[in-house]
Amino acid sequence: MNTWTKEDIREVYNKPLLELLYQAATVHRKHNDPREVQISKLVSIKTDGCPEDCGYCPQAARYHTDINGNSLMSVEEVKGHAQEAKDMGSSRVCMGAAWRNVKDDADFDQVLEMVKSVNQMDMEVCCTLGMLTENQARRLADAGLYAYNHNLDTSEEYYKEVISTRGYEDRLQTIENARKADLTVCSGGIIGLGEKDEDRISMLYTYSLMRPQPESVPINALVAVEGTPLEEQNPVPIWDMIRMIATTRIVLEHSAVRLSAGRTEMSDEGQALCFMAGANSIFAGDKLLTTPNPEFNNDLALFNKLGLVPMKAYKKGDKPKINEAYKESPESKEKIKWSRPEHKIERNEAAKQKGKKVRKVTSVKEL
Ligand code: SAM
Ligand code: DTB
Ligand code: SF4
Q1: pTM for the whole thing?
Q2: What's the CA gap between 165 and 173, in Å, rounded?
């Protein structure tokens, strides 16, 4: 495994585009069959109402978007989505919940049943549920989870500009908890948040230092959703996407690189160049979590045009065995105190000040 300096990565990122593309395509061929592309199906098992303030996310409760929230999906409905996706060639299901973190409650028990059911359908199961403890990661692994998705999204420096309700350290901690439970890690980023090239380079540098490095790295182009703070961001130029995918392929040569959100805005030719640059995974199905994605049939037509074929499940790892211990809730509930970086949102500061002024002593204990 190569050891990269930030300067090395910067040099790769800044190469003339066609040189970069050629190098990335060459690295891709060293480790992968370039015709194979993993097809992953996203299922939003719990939509909207999230207490976090991620500036890009339409599911944050505080932003006024047109998303209709719902309660946790049933196991049967998840199985239905998984079967439909499998019939179309998907080998992985990624279940997403608009949660800040996992709680040891009945909803989590239901998610564990979803994981087990999809594992039994011989598909790779991935979850993205927010922050989780080591014990929760272990229970997911015991239920048959293959991968945990938790994105760093951007550089440590820029993260604070986009999210104020948690810190980079919290993200790294959850990734470590997933690793301790022997889960594979899916972790990537978003481009188009207003970050600089240097932030993209810095995020890739962080991933390059991980041992092991993430098995999957999704690269998302921001879907600028009306009502979110980033609604007016300019669309990501396709050339940036190709450059980012190619650099990711070269720096993280053993990882699957997923051409993720933003494909509805990309031409077939643009996507073809992303596959050439080493992308070997996509999310398919006409919806991502809450926003549109190309129709499955259009993707299959594109695959036919380009001579791409769907990758089979468990190509790079064994199917996890189910251990019924997943049903056992922890005796003493492990509680992690998540950091909460200084909240800069004005109205909250104002509320805090107001609270101080009117606060009265109401019990002897407080004296
Ligand atoms: N709540 C969990 C969390 O944040 O980890 C899981 C769900 S969250 C929606 C998963 C990822 O979706 C985020 O980390 C981000 O990378 C991506 N995402 C969310 N909104 C997006 C948008 N508008 N455009 C592109 N990617 C987005
Ligand atoms: C990832 O990196 N991208 C996916 C998945 N992991 C969970 C989510 C994209 C969400 C795009 C906005 C939406 O549909 O809500
Ligand atoms: Fe959206 Fe996840 Fe952030 Fe919640 S934690 S606002 S679901 S990205």
Answers
A1: 0.93
A2: 15
